[in-house]
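Good morning C.,

I know you're traveling, so I'll keep this short. The sequence:
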Amino acid sequence: MAPNNIVVLGAGVSGLTTAYLLSKDASNCITVVAKHMPGDYDIEYASPWAGANYVPSVLQGVGQSNPVHETRERNTWPFLKELAEKHPDAGIHFQDSIGYIRKTDEGSSNGSSVAAIRQPWFKDVVPDFCGVPQDQLPPGIASGSKFTSVCINTAIYLPWLASQCLRNGVIFKRGVLPHIADAANAHHTGQRAALVVNCTGLSSKTLGGVTDNNLYPVRGQIVIVRNDSGAMAAISGATDDGPDELCYMMTRAAGGGTVLGGCYQKDRWESTPDPNLAVRIMKRAVALRPQLVGEGQGIEGLDVVRHGVGLRPVREGGTRIEVERVDGVAVVHNYGHGGFGYQASFGCAGEAVALVRGVLREAKL
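The C-alpha cells, ready to paste straight into the viewer:
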C-alpha cells in the first residue's frame, strides 16, 4: 500500500506536536517544511520565547475560556504529566504554581481573571489544588490559589519533539513558501503530497491561499535570569504599571533559568526589548517573590541571562482547526493558539490528526 505523503508546514510547538502524533502511524510519510527550526531565535518564531507552562485561562488576556478550548487543554494535561514523570529528556518538570489576586482587583471589572484563579475550571485536572493561607500572602494580595503544574524548558523540549519525529522517519526541510498550495510539491520524496497541515502561526496572516486577517500579534517581553523562583507565580490581570503589563515567573526545567514576564501588547510588532519595561518586569517579580534575590536586595540581585520578545499568534474567533481545499490541495489548519500553544498543544494536534485521517479516508473511498 502506498504511504500517505503529508507535508506539515511550520516547526513551532504546534507543527512539531502534530507531526509527532502523525508519525506514530507508520502509513504516514511526513515532511516538515519550515523557515525556522528548533534552535533558532527569531521574532517570527514564537515557540522558543514562551515560558512555558500549564496555567489555562489565567494570563491569556481572553477574558474567559470556552468548552471547546477547555477540552483541548484538558486533553493536553495527561501528555505533559506523562512527559514530566517518565521522560526527563523532554525538559519538562513538575513545579508548584501560585496564582494571586490583588486587593485592587477585588470586585473590579477584571472579575473574569479573578474568577479564573479562585475557581478555575482546571482545578479538578491538576493535582493539589487549594487556597493559599492568608498568612502566606504577599503584601497587597487579597487571596490566592496553588496547585501542581509543569514548566517546560523550550530550548530542550522543541528539539526533543523534533528528535521523536526523526526517530519515526519524519524528514525536516527548511523552506519559505509563498502559497500554501506550494507545500504539496515540497514533500521530500519528490512526489505530490496527499495533504498539507498548516501550522504556521502568525505567518498565516500573510501566507498566500490563507491570508487570515483575523490573526494579530500580541507582544510579550521576558527577562530570563539564573535566580530560582521556587515556584511559578502570577498575579491576575493587569498591574499598577499599566493595563497591558503582567506579572508572572516560572523556573524552567534542567537549568533553563527563571522566566520573568511580562506584557500583553496587542497589535505590537516591535522585536527589540524595551529596557524600561524590562526594569518594571524585574521590579514586579522581586516585589512578588523576594526570595528571588538575597535579603534586602532589589533587582540588582538578579543575574540576567537574556532579554527576549515574542509575538503571540492570537486569532479573533479562536484557534483555527479545520479542513479547507486551496487550489485543489487538501489543507488541515492548526494555528492561532495565542499564548496557550504549549498547554493546548496535544489537544489541538489530536483534533488536527483526526481531521487528517478523515481526509485520507475519504480520498481512498
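Safe travels,
E.
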